[in-house]
Amino acid sequence: MASLFLMNVPHDCSESELSHWVESFGFSVQSVRLVRDVIAGVSPSFAYVEIAHDLEMLDAISRINGHSIRNRVIVVSQARRAAPAA
After folding, report:
1. Which residue has better confidence, 1 or 82?
2. Higher model confidence: residue 2 or residue 60?
3. Is 84 within a domain?
4. What is the C-alpha separation between 13 and 45, in angstroms, rounded?
5. Span between the terminal Cα atoms of the chain, in Å
6. Which residues contact residue 58 at a Cβ distance below 8 angstroms, ignoring those fewer than 6 apart?
7. What secondary structure letter does DSSP report for 70?
8. CATH of residue 20
9. Residue 45 CA to its chain's centroid (Å)
10. pLDDT (tens digit per residue) in 31-70
11. What residues make up the domain containing 41?
C-alpha cells in the first residue's frame, strides 16, 4: 500500500468525504486518517490516505495535487515515516 500525506484539508472534512474525493480520481482507498486536535476535536488540515497499489503513488500525487475540495486547494506528497528516536 502507498501512503499519501494531504495538506490543507477542510477542518470539518470527514474520513468518508475525503475517501470518496480521492476515489473520484480513480484510486482505491484502503484507509483515511485525519489528524485531529484532541482538545478542539477538529482537523488542523492534515490527513493520511492509503491507496491500494504502491505503483499508483506517483500517479496519485500528480493527479490529485492542486485540486480543490470545498474551495481548499489540496497539497499532496508521499507520506514519510518518522525517523527512529536516537
Report:
1. 1
2. 60
3. no
4. 9
5. 27
6. none
7. T
8. 3.30.70.330
9. 10
10. 999 987 777 666 678 999 999 888 889 999 999 999 999 9
11. 2-78
Evaluate whether residue 86 is within a structural domain.
Answer: no
Residues 6+ apart with CB under 8 A from 22: 4, 29, 32, 49, 51, 60, 64
Query: What is the pLDDT at residue 82?
Result: 59
- Residue 13, pLDDT > 60, answer yes
Cα dihedral sign for 8, 13, 15, 17? negative
C-alpha cell at 78: 508521499
Q: Tens of pLDDT along 22-40?
A: 999 999 999 999 987 777 6
Q: In sequence order, what DSSP letters do the residues of 26-67 get, joined into one string?
A: T--EEEEEE---TTT-S--SEEEEEES-GGGHHHHHHHHTT-
pTM for the model: 0.85
Q: Which has the closest alpha carbon to 64: 72, 45, 42?
A: 72
Is the residue at 83 inside a domain?
no
